[in-house]
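Mods, move this if it's the wrong board.
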Amino acid sequence: MKRSLLSIAIPLFFLSACGEGPARLTEPETVEITIEGYVTSVQDGSPVQGASVNATRRESYNCDLVFCSYRTRTWGSTETDSTGYYRISLPSLCFEFLVYSVSEPSYISERQEVCVSDGDQRVDIQMRLTEPTVIVSGRVSSSVAGNLLAAVGVRVYDDASSAEPIATDVTGYLSRGSYEISIDCREIVYVQATCRESLFPSGNCTGWMDSEPVRLTSECLGRGTLPVRHRVDFVLEPISETAIRILFDNGSSSGPQHNYANTVGQQELFEDFTLDETSTITTIHWQQHDYNGSVYLYTDVVIFSGLPFDARPVFSSTIEADRTLNATGTLFDHWAGLDYAIEGLSITLPAGTYWLGLNAKFDGVRSGWDMSHGGPNTIPGFRLVKEDTPTPGNVVGADLAFTLSGYPQ
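Not the wrong board. Structure tokens:
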């Protein structure tokens, strides 16, 4: 008898526990609360129309004694009107708000946690515009033999006349003359291949003319995060000796008795010059008087697009110049006249007025940049600058001896 009662008790117990099917999560007892606010752009504060506002929660289901499964459930969804306004009713729980633009995938918002409490609430949400990247890649080769060129600088500009690139790369030896540049998406950029000494002083990319800037247009909006890709291959022409000419002649030395101390760490001089058209400077010549027996180290070469230190330099490099004695004579029996030359440059500048600094560094001894008797392009006056003060000195009615050679673009 006991055996039969026991066999009946077990199924009855099982039926009482499972007779209504699987266990279900009970919804919390909540009160509907109205959430309203505005969705605007982080960039300019403008309203974002048609943005989808979604209130989600991460919830568990199918739980047993060991683990639970999880899913994200959307509790409410609405869209913004033309003013960016939205309104949504939600229970008094904590939600994660995610907003995205259906019409403009580039707009996204950060996930924002909102805990709904008693009483209506206002929650303003800002969205940021995420634009895709622009990727420019290609190869640089020679027009002579068609071989790929290494150590060539490739630059991207916002404007064709800009002197400052927004991004650069250098073609490599192992990559066989290839380059790749990635930047934030811009509707219009210009790409140019160049052998400028300022970008890679240790490179061997000399003897090639800069390429013409290539204009690229990109559709930035509406792509989400998909990159915009451009391929631009450059073919560089060799610099012809017949193309090289004097671009600016400020005259030669007026003699040993006329020079101004010009040494890094003591006093530095800057001289102005103009270019009538976009040109590439390949060589700088000038005259100095240096103390006999002094050890020359290098010359700081810098070019400003405005008054020294009032503008950012468009070129700056430390270079050891070639020096040869000249016939200008000896100053005070201790200072010999020398011709200085820096060749193999590739400094491309748009038309305009600039300030050139050629400031030598010696082993504890000063040098003097020779004054000029005046040349065909001389702009009267030069500016003295002392290194121990940020304030430029006065413009003085004398000029310094130098010439710039190169070729117009």
